Amino acid sequence: MKRVIFILLVSITLTACQDVVDIDVPIDSPRLVIDALIRVDESEADTKIQVKASISSSFFGTLVPANLERITLTNESGGAPLVLTETGSGTGIYQTYANLEFLKFGTLQLSILHDGQSYSARTKYVPSSPIDRLEQGDGTLFDGTETEIIVVFTDAPDRTDFYLFDFDFGEYLVSEDTFYPGQPFKFSYFYDEELKPSMEVNVSILGVDKTFYNYMNQLIAQSSSGDQGPFQTPAATVKGNIINVTEINTAAENNYALGYFAVCQSFERSLIIE
Amino acid sequence: MNIRTRLFFILFLFFCLYSFPQQKYTLSGSISEVASNETLIGVTVAIADLRTGVTTNEYGFYSITLPEGVYNIHVSYLGFQDIIQKIELSQDRKVNFQMREEAEVLEEVVVTDSGERLDIRKPQMSVNTMAVETIKKIPVILGEADVIKSILLLPGVTNAGEGASGFNVRGGSVDQNLILLDEATIFNSSHLFGFFSVFNPDAVKDIKLYKGGIPARYGGRLSSVLDIFQKEGNSKNFKFNGGIGAVASRLLAEGPIVKDKIAFLVGGRASYVHLFLPLFDVDNTAYFYDLNTKINYKLNDKNNIFLSGYFGRDVFGISESFVNTYGNAVGNFRWNHLFSDKLFSNLSLIYSDYYYGLKLDFVGFNWNSGIQNFNIKYDLKHYISDKLQINYGLNNIYYQFNPGKIEPSNSESGIIKEQLIQKYANEFAAYIDIEHSLTENLSLGYGIRFSHFTRLGQEELNVYQNDNPVLFNSELQIYQEAEPIEVSTPGRSESLATFNNLEPRISLAYTIDANSSIKASYTRLAQYLHLLSNTNSPTPLDVWTPSGTFIKPQLLDQSALGYFRTLSEGKYSLETEVFYKTIKNRIDYIDGANLIANDAIEQVILNGEARAYGLELLLRKNEGRFQGWLAYTLSKSEQRTPGRTATETGINAGQWYSTPYDKPHDISVFSSYELNKKWSINANFVYQTGQPTNYPIGQFEFQSLTVPYYGLRNEERLPDYHRIDVSATLTPKKNLGRKWQAEWVFSVYNLYNRKNAAAINFNRNRDNGVNEAVRTSIFGIVPAVTYNFKF
């Protein structure tokens, strides 16, 4: 929500002209990237665990899938580790299935072996709140071509919640319940472009912890078109929770990985654009 | 008391006890403009026979004590006719001078002084004054004469790019400028996020910018003091002046309520910006307005009362769902009282507030925040002899901070009304400031300010384990917010933290010959308020926060050395200075810090440090048809926040990084040419090293986001910035001898239409899926016409 204020403020400020320019960007060494956001739908008995592994590149370079030597998911409270297998050779997508019991209780650990280096990430299941209503609105914001979606959900009482909304088409938003604890909360989201009639829009609400909330907040800011101009915030590496355990306690310039491992309850609703 | 401060007191006592053997009398009075009774600031009253003199203070008062005798008094002020008067001083005398503008007497082309002549004898250095006439000549965007845009052309003054709010002095941040309008603090100097400044140039009499060597009477901000005095109002005749411009129109009225005794001034300005921002359709609004008022009551020779007010607002609205309002309001009562011919006093009671309001209907809430302060100031100026002047005074400011209040904007909204915890503080200061001519060649300015800051109690206060609100996660190598272990309720009567600081100020001038001098200064300053701003340039919704348990006061040490010279009998002047400054406790924010509506701001802040150093050069031509200046600054401004322990990384890996307004090379040229009676032509040229920025060191994908990621902060630079602006002023011939005086100002901003980059953003193009570097440039070539009038 805070982000919304900010982006708004920024967008109306700069009514400036833009053009694409050629820039020589610096190049970091290639890093392992782990996209392990696991969405859990509690109405299903088994959840598909899908992890996407890739190698980072320079900004104008090409991202390639990573070939992992091993990837496993363990519940630290006991039981055998689940081994994820690549869906097809060279895709970098690794999958397995886990039941609710395994995911919901205790600390989960993702262990990865890549290029002789061991990586590890730990997380806990975070509950979410269902979407009560999803409808299309007729409001617009700046130039009159946006599509408005109205979301209503009820925040869970007696608990501090952080949410991640997935609005489809690669659009995300984070929100925390500081100002609407335990309340039904209604807000509008605007898609920049006009969505075409009969298009289907899927909206999910994911429960996240504070660290992942902060992570996503930075990711959204850094990847959004962000015409921030003089109101630019300092950009960062945005380190996630994938830790290189082989090189732990070595120099600060260690071979860290990018990405995040999170297991979140998710509720989804869809809507056909009129 | 440490040795340094003890030395100060001893020195001070010594000078106070200094006795004067000869019979002496005091010549004092006030100096004003004959047509309006407007008092004049900085008029020189020279006693050539003794090679001494004095200048009028902010209220037009002067006083000088001399041995008995007959003197030729020479009163001079830029743009005014000199007055030379023989005065016999055999008793204390009160002489008021009334000066006549040169323009009124000379029928030929008016060639006025620029109003900013260099004073090589005074120890005060690192100060620039700018006459309103100069400000009005400087070509600016959309022809709207602008105080802040004008000072950006001075050496050592820069900002974080076009459309950035505020200004940066000698590598300091925007919140380190003390901006005073008739002695009241202005918290936000920008309209429309920085495109225009909040001061109506028609209402302004005089501006003075201290970049260093800040006298002890000022305090509370580290980097500069921008002291702006409003006109008092014409107490002889009713006068109107105004203008119609591309952005805004102005009208100012002034006149006597009781002739020669009570005068008023009312000035208003309003914009119609929404007409030129084509992005907004009919539903939307974007405008600003401001109102300046002043009443001046001359009770008698010894007492003067001023009431002044300022009110300004910016309003943005996008359909009904987004409305944003913000601005300053200032009310001010001042009483000048003369205890004797030698002792001038001013009492000020000031209320000032900054308000920020936001209605965000599409997420269902209203938001407002602000800062209020009540300020009592008592300043005395004691003119002991022609060699010695002592200024001293007291100041107390009570602050109330509202970091934010949230309310549901409609009945369906789930937002619960909540007031973020309000904060309170009190800042007290006492100072003594001495201007002293030791010998014919050496003059000194020295003083000390004692400041005492109390962070007052509040309703709730977070308590952290080991008093540490920011944790370092060594596994993830990032800083994280700590959870409070309890919330205490100290209540309003308790004080949470107090700070005391002694702030010495010393400056000296050594006059080499009649035309040149060397000056040096050292300044220590403390700043207790911090603007929470994590962007390149502050936004209007940034809130101020007081120092307290977790956030320490910022402390500055600045030294400067300069060489000053006038050439060709004052036609030209050259000012060169080098400075070095360090700032302790400059706050910085952990990566990804959220500052908006954050009720526990201490969880995202670390105390760091900053430093800046540089060389400034200002070559000025002060008279003739062609006037102007060339300013060059070579400087560096950086900050760092090292880890608190050996295992912590600090912010930016604990390394120094360039501040967003660090511009190593900065050249500004302003020139003005009086072609003939009808036309005058003005031009600016600005060249600056590109601002620091970040280029991504790589990219990765997470979910469906393409994320550019970055390395250390501000390692790269935007392309160099440069532009030329020109303007031409047409004064029609028919003005001669008529009441209605008019002029047309034609201006072109960014003449060669350079696309100066305000930012380069890296993102994936949604339409073609290709990664791009997108340059945003704010203003291309912008022509404008303004019509000014007075009657």
How are the SSEs ordered, and which strands pair?
The complex is a heterodimer of chains A (274) and B (791).
Chain A: H1 2-13, E1 17-21, E2 32-40, E3 46-55, E4 64-65, E5 70-75, E6 82-83, E7 85-86, E8 93-99, H2 100-104, E9 107-114, E10 117-126, E11 131-137, E12 147-154, E13 162-166, E14 172-176, E15 184-191, E16 200-208, H3 210-223, E17 243-244, E18 258-272
Parallel strand pairs in A: 2-18, 10-18
Antiparallel strand pairs in A: 2-3, 3-4, 3-8, 5-6, 5-9, 7-8, 9-10, 10-17, 11-12, 12-15, 13-14, 13-16, 16-18
Chain B: H1 3-17, E1 24-33, E2 44-47, E3 52-55, E4 61-67, E5 69-76, E6 83-89, E7 93-94, E8 97-99, H2 102-105, E9 127-131, H3 132-137, H4 147-151, E10 157-158, E11 168-169, E12 177-181, E13 184-185, E14 190-191, E15 196-197, E16 204-210, E17 224-230, E18 239-244, E19 248-258, E20 262-271, E21 285-298, E22 303-318, E23 322-338, E24 343-360, E25 365-385, E26 388-408, E27 418-419, E28 423-437, E29 442-456, E30 461-463, E31 470-473, E32 478-481, E33 486-488, E34 495-513, E35 516-527, E36 529-531, E37 544-546, E38 554-567, E39 572-589, E40 605-621, E41 626-640, E42 657-658, E43 665-674, E44 679-688, E45 692-693, E46 698-702, E47 705-709, E48 716-717, E49 721-730, E50 741-749, E51 759-764, E52 771-777, E53 782-790
Parallel strand pairs in B: 1-7, 1-8, 12-17
Antiparallel strand pairs in B: 1-4, 2-3, 2-5, 5-6, 9-16, 10-11, 12-13, 14-15, 16-17, 18-19, 18-53, 19-20, 20-21, 21-22, 22-23, 23-24, 24-25, 25-26, 26-27, 26-28, 28-29, 29-34, 30-33, 31-32, 34-35, 35-38, 36-37, 38-39, 39-40, 40-41, 41-42, 41-43, 43-44, 44-49, 45-48, 46-47, 49-50, 50-53, 51-52
